Amino acid sequence: MKKALITGINGQDGSFLSELLLEKGYEVYGILRRKSVVDYGNVTHIKDKIHFIYADMTDVVSLIKALNIAQPDEVYNLAAQSFVATSWDQPIATAEIDAVGVTNILEAIRVVNPKCRYYQASTSEMFGKVQAIPQDENTPFYPRSPYGVAKLYGHWITKNYRESFGLFTCSGILFNHEGERRGKEFVTRKITDTVARIKLGLVDHLELGNMDAKRDWGHSKDYVRAMWLMLQQDEPDDYVVATGETRSVRDFAKTAFDKAGIKVEFSGSGVDEIGTDVNSGKVLVRVNPKFFRPAEVEMLVGNPKKAEEKLGWKREISFDQMVERMVATDITLVKQEMRYASQL
Ligand code: NAP
Ligand code: F7E
């Protein structure tokens, strides 16, 4: 039985990856941070199948202890301060976790078991102000946020430990991937959650920032499969994982309303742009400049050819299916919340 250690296990990707590895017969160990309230987050439903270890990416001693306990064949480093907007508010914490934290875990691997295979969660945010369209493994990087800059350090140190010490380290340059377990501060889940609340009459409109921003959005369940595949190859390497399609935030919102049976039309421009319900004439979407970023990544679209050819990776969940799934889940969750509130 293979053993895997996942950092960031209770996050979105950690949960889908845990399910995948458990299905494959792995013994799964996961790192949690100590909080005032015990919180298994997205792995609550499978918590009895996972061995949890308390550690922190900023504390190398805790990581060495975790590796000693788990003795893993594979480490998946998914832990991060992953919200780009927060990286301007907490640039130091972001760097300590997302950049230096990577050196911490690579050093822990060197000390405990240099044969252990390592996956690093790199990101399309490293392309930032894009230097080529579409972006692939050879596209120069130009990060646009403290998050992107910190992740670029993590990416290069992962490559450097491969070249310096012969560690089996891989970076997945993953483009945005979403799903029903996505944090509600990210734009996709913010949209599907608010659409559900509008549909059920709890909220009257959705406020967004830059609706022109374009992203290459896939589903997390498909993307964690690529992580696993990278660590099953004969040689370590870096791979772009993406869909090759790009859509604006406005397109995402329109599709989400559509899936809830609400037809929305957009008019106006800049901060005056609005989205209107075609049937009732009500304004359902407004722009709020508080969601604008100090520097924006305007457009991302990835080329997943290398991952498809070398790993045999293929996405199975289309954009349409993903949005449908997210809206349906949020409608169910909001209904549950309403039932619970009515019993109080
Ligand atoms: P997520 O839902 O925000 O999960 C992040 C995880 O990291 C959480 O479990 C969090 O634990 C943990 N964490 C944060 N700081 C930590 C620390 N100091 N020590 C230990 N654990 C810590 O993120 P995700 O969407 O699953 O993404 C997984 C990884 O892929 C991240 O590294 C992200 O940057 C990267 N990535 C994501 C995407 C995407 O579109 N989702 C694309 C490219 C790359 P708490 O619950 O305690 O906060
Ligand atoms: O923003 C725009 C915003 O916060 C997407 C992380 O997983 O993917 C994610 O980073 C776009 C941006 O994700 C709102 O300005 C408009 O252009 O959902 P997001 P992100 O910044 O792309 C990458 C690959 C990662 O690695 C990260 O960890 O949407 N936008 N209006 C908005 N964004 C938010 N959050 N909220 C709005 O109201």
Write the layout of secondary structure elements.
Blueprint: E1 3-7, H1 12-23, E2 27-32, E3 50-54, H2 60-70, E4 74-77, H3 86-89, H4 91-112, E5 117-123, H5 146-165, E6 169-174, E7 177-178, H6 187-199, E8 206-208, E9 214-215, E10 218-219, H7 220-230, E11 238-241, E12 247-248, H8 249-259, E13 264-267, E14 274-277, E15 283-287, H9 305-311, H10 319-343
Parallel strand pairs: 1-2, 1-4, 2-3, 4-5, 5-6, 6-11, 7-10, 8-15
Antiparallel strand pairs: 9-12, 13-14, 14-15
List keywords for this structure.
seven-stranded parallel sheet, alpha/beta, 344 residues, four-stranded mixed sheet, binds ligand F7E, 40% helix
Give a short synopsis of this structure.
By secondary structure, the protein is α/β, with parallel strands linked by helices. It has helices spanning 12-23, 60-70, 86-89, 91-112, 146-165, 187-199, 220-230, 249-259, 305-311, 319-343, and strands at residues 3-7, 27-32, 50-54, 74-77, 117-123, 169-174, 177-178, 206-208, 214-215, 218-219, 238-241, 247-248, 264-267, 274-277, 283-287.
Please explain how this structure is put together:
This protein is α/β, with parallel strands linked by helices. The protein is globular, with a radius of gyration of 20 Å. A hairpin with a 6-residue loop joins strand 13 and strand 14 (274-277). It has helices at 12-23, 60-70, 86-89, 91-112, 146-165, 187-199, 220-230, 249-259, 305-311, 319-343; strands at residues 3-7, 27-32, 50-54, 74-77, 117-123, 169-174, 177-178, 206-208, 214-215, 218-219, 238-241, 247-248, 264-267, 274-277, 283-287. Bound molecules: NADP nicotinamide-adenine-dinucleotide phosphate and ligand F7E. The site of NADP nicotinamide-adenine-dinucleotide phosphate has 25 residues, from helix 1 and strand 5. Ligand F7E binds at residues 82, 84-85, 123-125, 175-176, 185-188, 190, 208-210, 213, 215, 249, 291, 293, 296-297.
